[in-house]
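Lab notebook, bench 4. Still working through the backlog of constructs that have no structural model yet. Next entry is a single chain of 294 residues. Request: give me the structure tokens for it.
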Amino acid sequence: MTINLLLSSVLFLAIVHNSIASGIAIYWGQNGNEATLNDTCNSGRYAYVNLAFLNKFGNGQTPEINLAGHCNPAVKGCTIVGPEIKHCQKLGVKVMLSIGGGIGNYSLASKKDAKDVARYLWNNFLGGRSSFRPLGNAILDGIDFDIELGSSLHYKDLAKYLKNYSKRGRKVYLTAAPQCPFPDRLLGTALDTELFDNVWIQFYNNPPCQFTPNNTDNLKNSWIRWTTSVNARWIFLGLPAAPQAVGSGFIPVDVLTAEILPVIKKSRKYGGVMLWSKFWDEQTGYSVSILKSV
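Model written out:
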């Protein structure tokens, strides 16, 4: 009886560990025609939602969030997203604010600049206080680094300053979305801090390390390089949810589930799959097709 009880407990813990470890992360916010944040989380398909993007910050600028057609933060219109963030969190979905993106005006001029940006993010999106919180009083789970423009300077400092806020009682999660060529040109030094919880690597728009028809080797080799070189808790395979979502790198569902996932899931750091983006996922149903395999 005792042995059976012990085995049952071990099995239960293994199931819980799996459910926490593996999942789908999705980027939401860059198309006003996609589902609401509430509906996104109600689907039950996503473990993480990255709100995209805070695409203006640094160099003394007042940071600005851009959620495309969803709302206008300039007139405090994005506070309506706050209750939806809380709803997602009640469902167990982690909601991150993604900073950067492919279009915007951002960079960090100095360590002080990084400290100022960290303080702004803490007071306006995390556990701090501010008279102007663009998303209302919802407390996001952390910050996602999707740095695609400018230089690599001081993002390691930003990561350190943000992580220090975890000492105030609520963990600040840090995630990153580097490009698959290793090391990432802009985020390499930040990732060297070993402060990031999740790293979802963009295996698209990067021919040397992404999937190309009849060739999965480049992707698999790149995955091995990342998982053996970067000290993050979980590493995710970042993919486009539709061929039209990116320039290149789309992987057909059958290839992903039969040839790629069985190989990369052997890594103890495998955390799941990241998809760009919610709008495109709705067009193809990609996440539905891969959910059981992830």
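Notes after review: The longest helix spans residues 2-21. The chain is about 35% helix and 20% strand. Flag for follow-up if needed.
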